[in-house]
Design brief:
The complex is a heterodimer of chains A (353) and B (302). Chain A is 66% helix and 1% strand. Chain A is mainly alpha-helical and 353 residues long. The N terminus of chain B is likely disordered. The chains are: A mainly alpha (353), B mainly alpha (302).
Chain lengths: 353, 302
């Protein structure tokens, strides 16, 4: 075990050749040091391996068995679960639904979040340097609000909002003279259930990504804006030519994580459409998986669904990276960006959800 | 990061761009931009606030009032809805469970995450990169892949439907996020102070707890807030792994209460329960909202 600091050795204060050369060197393995490493690295890793890594690895094997859980015996069935899955109309429908979610939720959320972030940071007075809008912090606080509300509560609030008779949505629409919505069941019609669900997810998430983008925009060097002003660029032009290219990688990271969140969407659908919606029009893979596992006890089959969900997630992430790369974004600055990216990725995920 | 900060400082020191250089067309387009910005933000604020206000007002109404007139204020403000939600719907009990589980998990994950990040960030040893990438994978894969094996893993340990089991699972799944956020933080801390501590005779343990950890406090605070929100709002893990009704957490209890409402409708109490659930997080948010915005930018630029 070595220390990254070349000069931090205390066992001997004499400069050794290694220290002079600035290279890390070996330190004595004292009892103190061994217990230190065991506790600091061993304990967290043990918990991580036991409750995250092993289940992930087990899932891949169990996905290829017909295991039903409470009996100890099972047979290895290879890819049978997967062929069965793709012949199952309900699962295929769930796959289609989550694909729709992964396409539209990030698109709408990020467009809105960018709109809010740009308006807050660049919508200020037209004279002088580019400045934030009046009341920026108020708008920022308000738009972040839904993100701190537990997602299950967001779902419950909107389930009430969409209520055909007593909900506020129909109340507002009829007050505006749209009488056809008097008793319209937003979550009960195949045509409207999915868009209504998407709207709620967007409502819950926009604030976080708006704040993320505000931070990214504030990190754009002010010189760039100043130069653009001197060249006679207005706010619209500045946004398109300076702001958007500058925060491109943040947008990409946000896109990946929003897509992953949308592919899951479990909390929202459980709160609003626990039975998969009208004609399974909002059923998600996660909901199907949960049902097959914990209601029908087909654990092998359910785990196989988890594997498919993971593969879909990885394919989605790869697609986003590919598109960004092909359209000219990505690693132009090379390796120096890597640590920043990790942290951004962690930040874009926004906590331990 | 420091380069950007320096850029911004030097830019703000300079005089603003002279307005004479801007054409009239640019100024008027800027005005349009500002007007559109305001309109957009006001519209969005209304869409955010109105549902919350509606829930708040409805929580003081009777079921009849809610069903007949969604817009109107209540005849008299029924505070008793809150008492019903707290006791009849057991929201009080679930609230306490949530507090216990989240506080324990938060403390553990902050401690273990900081320790792990510290080792990975500041020591060179074989397997370091492997551990780093394995944890990165843990951050990327969906929890749903693991949920069934996790269920049986907890059962094997006798931890299913127990608070310690739920706490450990929370810790395990929040660990990668915590580690990655703090990793960059520990990397950026200066070496001199650490060396000084060692020269003064501190061992590795004391150097961490008395010197390095206090120096990482801003980063710790930011991660703690995000972890608090994430864990308090956690739904999937408790629903799958904690089915004993006496140990339900708030999100679980709320979902169950809302679905039971279909047969036994007391909308006023339902809305009151929603308010009870939301208010604590809103208070935490309002106190710490500056730090949240700041930590997002830290995570972005580091």
């Amino acid at each position: 075990m070595k220390d990254t600091t070349p000069t931090s050795d205390t066992a001997s204060r004499r400069p050794t050749p290694a220290a002079r050369g600035g290279r890390p060197r070996r330190r004595k393995l004292t009892f103190d040091r061994v217990t230190f490493f065991l506790a600091f690295l061993g304990v967290p890793l043990a918990i991580f391996v036991t409750f995250v890594l092993i289940p992930f690895v087990q899932a891949i094997y169990w996905g290829m068995t017909d295991w039903r859980g409470f009996s100890p015996d099972y047979t290895f069935v290879g890819f049978d679960n997967f062929t069965k899955m793709f012949q199952d109309d309900i699962f295929v429908k769930a796959l289609r639904n989550v694909t729709l979610l992964a396409i539209f939720v990030p698109l709408v959320t990020l467009t809105l979040a960018l709109g809010v972030a740009v308006a807050i940071t660049l919508g200020g007075p037209s004279k002088g340097p580019v400045r934030g809008i009046r009341g920026a912090s108020f708008y920022r606080i308000i738009s972040f609000f839904p993100y701190v509300v537990p997602a299950i509560i967001v779902g419950l609030i909107w389930a009430q909002m969409y209520d055909p008779n007593a909900g506020l949505v129909n109340g507002v629409l009829t007050a505006l003279g749209l009488d056809q919505f008097d008793t319209f069941a937003w979550l009960g019609e195949t045509s409207s259930a999915m868009p209504a669900l998407m709207f709620v997810i967007v409502w819950g998430l926009v604030g976080f990504y708006a704040v993320l983008f505000i931070a990214a925009i504030k990190g754009v060097p002010a010189e760039l804006y100043e130069a653009a002003r001197i060249d006679g660029a207005g706010r619209f032009r500045t946004t398109l030519s300076i702001t958007l290219p500058a925060i491109r990688d943040t947008v990409q990271t946000a896109y990946v994580y929003l897509g992953i969140a949308a592919l899951d969407a479990f909390v929202y659908v459980q709160a609003m459409l626990p039975n998969g919606g009208p004609d399974n029009s909002t059923l998600t893979i996660s909901q199907r998986l949960f049902n097959v596992a914990f209601a029908k006890q087909q654990f092998g089959y359910a785990t196989a669904m988890g594997v498919v969900l993971a593969v879909v997630t990885l394919v989605f992430a790869a697609l986003v990276f590919l598109v960004n790369r092909l359209t000219g974004g990505g690693d132009s600055e090379g390796k120096t960006k890597a640590p920043g990216f990790r942290a951004r990725r962690a930040a874009a995920k926004g906590g331990a959800q | 990061m420091s380069a950007i900060a320096a850029d911004r400082k030097s830019a703000s020191d300079r005089k603003p761009t002279s307005d004479r250089k801007l054409t009239r067309a640019v100024v008027s387009s800027d005005r349009r931009f500002a007007a559109i910005s305001h309109a957009l933000l006001i519209l969005w604020s209304v869409i955010v606030i109105v549902p919350m206000l509606w829930v708040l007002v409805s929580s003081f109404k009777s079921t009849g009032e809610i069903l007949s007139s969604p817009f109107a204020l209540p005849d008299h403000w029924r505070v008793e809805n809150y008492a019903h939600a707290w006791t009849d719907a057991s929201i009080g009990k679930y609230f306490l469970n949530s507090v216990i589980v989240v506080v324990c998990a938060l403390f553990l994950v902050m401690l273990l995450g900081a320790m792990c990040a510290y080792i990975l960030a500041r020591f060179e040893f074989p397997g370091r990169r492997l551990i780093y990438y394995v944890m990165l994978a843990g951050l990327t894969f969906p929890v749903f892949l693991a949920i069934v094996p996790l269920f049986f893993q907890l059962q094997n340990f006798g931890l299913l439907n127990t608070r310690p089991g739920l706490i450990l699972t929370y810790v395990a799944f929040a660990l990668p996020f915590t580690m990655f956020f703090l990793y960059s933080f520990f990397r950026s801390l200066p070496h001199d102070v650490y060396e000084a501590a060692l020269i003064d005779g501190a061992g590795d343990w004391r150097a961490f707890f008395q010197v390095m950890l206090p120096m990482a406090r801003p980063g710790m605070a930011a991660v703690a807030i995000f972890n608090f929100l994430g864990l308090w709002n956690q739904f999937l893990l408790p629903v799958a792994l904690n089915t004993d009704q006496d140990k339900w957490v708030l999100t679980q209890g709320m979902a169950a209460y809302a679905s039971s409402q279909v047969y036994d409708i007391d909308y006023g109490a339902l809305f009151a329960a929603i308010v009870i659930t939301v208010v604590p997080v809103l208070i935490v948010y309002c106190i710490f909202q500056r730090r949240i915005a700041g930590s997002v930018s830290q995570g972005t630029f580091r």
